[in-house]
Amino acid sequence: MIKLAIVYHSGFGHTQRVAECVAEGAAAVENTQVAVQSVDRVDLETLHAADAIVFGAPTYMGGLSAPFKSFMESTSKLWLQQRWKDKLAAGFTNSGSLYGDKANALGELSCFAAQHGMLWISLGMLVNGVRGDRDDPRHLNRLGSSLGLMTQADVDRGPDLAPPISDLETARAFGRRIAGLAARWSAGKAGSRG
């Protein structure tokens, strides 16, 4: 069984919706168990047991939200113990504008994972859409990200209407990618124990 944990912060519900879609995609991969946790209620044992940890937070003012940064800082003792070394990691972020400096937020997440000795999983998909295709589920990665998942939610729409369908389908595809790579990584680790 592959264990995947998603830990996120969501200020208005949009990032939580993205986290749930990443979880749906991952859970669609055979023999994958997914735990979704808000930074307000983190069970560290679940994170320690995971084969992969996915980090998610909104981008506010060009960087990660303060509650997520607080979670990151709370893991410094784990860093000293190297508890997450060689685990897989991935990340996602959401903002109200099309760009909104989301690359900075993904950079913070990947650097955080690297500090813990984790191995980062990129989005791994080409751009397959343009701005006008936001409601077409076939147009994945409309925001053109590579480092991780970027989504956009209009600030005048609640999480029941935003992010758009194309972004949510990209989140599901990202979840499938992460779970699939975690299965390959886990199988390789088991084979090397010989």
Write the layout of secondary structure elements.
Elements: E1 2-8, H1 14-27, E2 32-38, H2 44-49, E3 52-60, E4 63-64, H3 66-74, H4 76-81, E5 88-95, H5 102-115, E6 119-120, E7 149-152, H6 165-193
Parallel strand pairs: 1-2, 1-3, 3-5, 5-6, 5-7
Antiparallel strand pairs: 3-4
Helix pairs in contact: 1-6
What are the key terms here?
alpha/beta, 7 strands, 6 helices, 194 residues
Structure in words:
The chain is an alpha/beta fold and 194 residues long. It contains six helices and seven strands. Strands 1, 2, 3, 4, 5, 6 and 7 form a seven-stranded mixed beta sheet that branches. Helix 1 crosses helix 6. The longest helix has 29 residues, at 165-193. It is globular and about 45 Å long. It starts with a strand and ends with a helix. The model has no long low-confidence stretch (mean pLDDT 95).
Largest sheet, strands/sense/barrel: 7 strands, mixed
Topology pattern, helix = H, strand = E: EHEHEEHHEHEEH
- Uncertain spans, ≥5 residues at pLDDT below 50? none
The coarse overall form would be globular
- Taking the alpha carbons of the first and last residues, their distance comes to 19 Å
| β-strand amount | 15-25%
Number of contiguous helices: 6
- Count the strands? 7
* Structural class category: alpha/beta
Helix content: 40-55%
What's the overall average pLDDT, rounded? 95
Rg, nearest Å: 16 Å
